[in-house]
Amino acid sequence: AMAAPMSQKSAMSLFKRMNYFKKLPEDLTISTAHGSIMTMIGFVAMAVLFVLEFRAFLEVKVETAIEVDDTVDTMIRVNFNLTIDDIPCEYVSVDMTDETGTHEYNITRRIVKTRLTALRRHIAIHPEADAGKPSYIAPSDDELADLEAKRASAAQERQVAEAAGADMSAHLDVHGNPHGEVVALSEPTLADYVRTHDMVFVNFFAPWCHWCRELHPIWESAAAKLPDLHYGEHVKMASVDCVAHVEFCRTMHIRAFPTLFLYSDHTMDHALTYRSTRSVEAILEFLETHAQRHHVAHDEGAAAENAAKVRSLASLQTFEHGPEACQMSGVLVVKKVPGAMHIRLHSTQYSHASDLMNASHVLHHLSFGGAPDEQQLSARSSTQILNVGRSQVDNLPFVAHATGRSFVHYHKVVAKLRKKLNGGTYGSYAYTMHSSAHEEAVNALPSIKFQYDFSPMKVVYQESSTPTYHFITSMCAIIGGFFTLLSLAESSLHFSIETISKKLRKPPCTVSAGRRSCRATGPLRAASQDDDTRYRDAASWREGRPAQRTAPAARRARRADAPLGRSGRCVGGGDM
Questions:
Q1: How far is CA 349 from CA 109, 202, 258, 307, 355, in A?
Q2: Which has more pLDDT, 162 or 530?
């Protein structure tokens, strides 16, 4: 019967000994200043670590992997935007080739050409209808025969008038050139000729140019008909041989033959380029329109009334100040195989000289990516098509310090796929670009070429987040670890302080009767005894046994517990 209570008591004792959260009475604890400081430091450090750990918990981590490119794109978009600084838009064309044998020439779909001044100010959108392909309508044989007969008759009249000593102003202009004939000019004579005439229409040509030879009879016929027209006295037609005057044509920004400039208002500061049909009727109509503009603008008596007419006529064509640039932007849909986009700086309806062509350009944007069109994009899963194109160049200039130099840009394109936390994916194409410039062969025209190739691998970015249990584990590790470290640090510090304090409280030693004595007396002895008693009691409490009191402490306890007799002495007390 007594074994059961003993067994229960042993089990309860064992259960209590398993308690790892034992508490000390308040009178057995010591509060120190350095302990408070260590506690504050610990709280601040744990708060900082908590904030950093919480931020890391909220952040989305990205893991990178390399995989085989298995995207289903068979076509890809090439998005580009560049400015060619010294070539007019009518001479620029875009071709595309690839290794499967595809060849496309003079692509105009989804491409916009913008005419710019030398300062890159907007002039106009270059029309794509028959752009860079002016037609030539030559005079008939009868018209040419009439032209020759008219020239012969005019020459005979001049000879008769000159022999008779008559006034030659009816036959010759102020420079002594016959009316109705094309005047051959050069660098020194062109400026003087423009200053002395209201309007001068100049043909910059090269004798070897096929299109210049096509234009020659048209130009001669138009000049022969001018004297018979009401505005003929205000307009003169001339020509400049750019083979004989190469440097002069370069300074005049001639980039192709034939180039037709109309100078007016007695100045060469600006010129109007003629780009329409090459026929006698079209040229005379062009000259009549601008002769009317010139007459209206210089009519002193009706300047205010004719201001609207001036603006209306001036809007028909735009004056060019200096060389003309061309900005090209657009999208090409190409096969996802190695290929090239070739920007050619010449037109099939003009003749070009390589020493007058400069391929300097600024690459504003170039990117790869996207579905061929919106219909196919909606028909497929957005996880399969890399539909985001990003440019890795931004207004990057490429300068050719000499004419006749071509540029080649090499691109290695790699697919990138990003897998989001919510399960969605999106991708893009990145690329590396290496560029080089080289001299073209003799008589070969410069160009700008973009070669591209696709990597068989793709880069996959997998987004991930920190699990909640990981965050909780980290927080527990921070709290427990800091408390442990601070406890060790505080214990070491406390032990050091107590050791130093005891040494400082060591009582003085005396020598009496040949014996050395170092016993503490008075308050110092009492404090030392109380400290010893307190630490022994704390140690005994931790071990789960009653505190072993010293003899003085036991006597004081018995005295306090003993009953008092009538005389005020303790009954049954021990030594007092």
A1: 20, 19, 9, 38, 19
A2: 162
Beta bridge partners of 93: 344
Q: Which amino acid does the sequence have at 227?
A: P
Spell out a b/e string for 201-224, using b for 16 or more CB atoms within 10 Å of the CB, else e: bbbbbbeebebbeebbbbbbbbbb
Q: With helix as H, strand as E and coil as C, how does 400-449 read? A: CCCCCEEEEEEEEEEEEEEECCCCCEEEEEEEEEEEEEEECCCCCCCEEE
* Displacement of CA 470 from its chain's centroid (Å): 38
Question: Quick check: 287 pLDDT over 60?
Answer: yes
Task: Give phi and psi for 265, each to the nearest 5.
Answer: 60, 25
> With contact defined as beta carbons under 8 Å apart, do 193 and 185 qualify?
yes
Residue 382, judged by CB atoms within 10 A of its CB (0-12, 13-18, 19+), counts as middle
| Cα four-point dihedral sign 440, 446, 448, 450 | negative
Q: What is the pLDDT of residues 252-285, one digit of tens each?
A: 888 889 999 998 888 887 788 888 888 989 999 8
pLDDT in tens, 514-523: 666 655 554 5
Supply 429's token pair: 């194409």
Query: How far is it, in rounded angstroms, from Cα 223 to Cα 219?
Result: 6
Residue 446's nearest CA partner among 359, 361, 362, 360 is 359
Q: What is the pLDDT of residue 506?
A: 63
Q: Give the model confidence (pLDDT) of 289-314 as tens digits.
A: 888 776 545 554 444 444 444 344 34
Radius of gyration for the chain, computed over Cα atoms and rounded to the nearest angstrom: 51
Token output for 428: 């893009």
CA distance 576 to 569: 10
Q: Around Cβ 230, how many Cβ atoms within 10 Å?
A: 9
Structure tokens at 103: 């060849």
Nearest to 252 by CA among 294, 208, 199, 191: 191
pLDDT in tens, 344-355: 988 887 888 888
Distance CA 209, CA 215 (A): 10
Which residues are paired to 461 by β-bridges? 64, 418
